[in-house]
Amino acid sequence: MRIFVTGASGFVGGAATSALVAGGHEVLAMSRSSKSDIMIRKLGAVPIRCDLENITPDHIGNCQAVLHCAAFVEAWGPKDAWYQANVVGTRTMLDRAMTAGASRFIHIGTEAAICHGQDLHDADETVPLAPDSPYPYCATKAQAERLVRDANRDGFATIVLRPRFIWGPGDTTLLPMIEAMAGAGKWMWINHGRAMTSTTHIDNLVHAIKLALTKGIGGAAYFILDDGIISMKGMITAMAKTRNLTLSDTSISTWLADLLGRSAEAVWRGLNLKSDPPLTAHAAMVMSRDCTLNGHKAAAELHYQPVISRAEGLAAL
Length: 317
Hints:
The protein is α/β, with parallel strands linked by helices. It has helices at residues 11-22, 34-42, 57-60, 81-100, 136-150, 174-183, 202-212, 232-241, 254-270, 281-288, 296-301, 310-316; strands at 2-6, 26-31, 46-49, 65-68, 104-108, 120-123, 157-163, 166-167, 189-190, 196-197, 200-201, 220-224, 230-231, 251-252, 291-293. Helix content is 41%, strand content 17%. Helix 1 packs across helix 7, helix 4 packs parallel to helix 5 and helix 9 runs antiparallel to helix 10 (281-288). The two termini are 31 Å apart.
């Protein structure tokens, strides 16, 4: 199959591109710089110089499928950064893919699309989206997912994959952040890390992407998960140990973390500070709320089962 990938320079897009090429697919990948060109070529794909703002149907060419991994996932940034990348960018990709004649559009979503600050326990895909979430990342990913699912039609199938807590080799966000904070002596838990969470190893997400090329119901969303659940402290401590790091047991309460996150954001916005605040409201929410999910729908409709266990993934990490 001929596949166009966005976000191939990132964690998820890069892993997917490498696996798709290895599986015999022809992969074209959006590239915004000469540095990305080099990285994409190393993955075995063809770099196509464009971005989410200027991409045209000609860039996608005669690709049968589009895998949309690109998103603004940073904890902090300009007020409109999440909307422009996650909503406007997704709308543009849908339009260009349809115009180019692609028949399948796979969107990498997230459980954040249903989060407005609540605990989630064994949540499935019937939980409503949260397009008005107070957290910009959550709100814009919900809005983007709605665009993707609404675009489904005969001849243009759209599939949304929702991983949670993506981890594994090649991680450019979570493990480096843990290392940096631990190294600087700044690591701190919220509510002692007791929040329970589902997780998604990168190999399991890539496996689901490959399944979604031919399986799944158009217009549907699927949670893609590892087996079982684990506490935040259990998971992050295990990840830190793979780097020989010992994390502090220092902890603050959930209400204090929420207050500090909101206050820090207000100060940073008010003073127009260019650095990242020490804690954001979104980070406080993610680290303190239970988020356990139900993957039965993916098993039934995508025929998805994890290809690597959490224990195997940690051992390899």
